[in-house]
Amino acid sequence: MTTVPDALALPAFTAVCVTSEERNCGAASGTLHTSDELTRWIAEHRAQTGHQHYEQTVRAILRAEPGAWQ
Predict the structure, then answer these.
(1) Which strand (E) or helix (H) includes residue 49?
(2) Which of 5, 15, 44, 61 could form a disulfide with 9 if both were Cys (CB 3.0 to 4.6 A apart)?
């Protein structure tokens, strides 16, 4: 068996601001579908706040293809 990205499904990108002064900011991008959209959100948040540290999550839908385990 192998897994392959599902070409019909959009990827999902999210970011959370983890800049820590006294506590993490916690501002979140919500789900975006391109890395450019995510970069734009981070740039806008940084312009407003000066925050520099973000945690990124990338999700993709995978399809399991039959076959022998390699």
Answers:
(1) helix 35-49
(2) 61
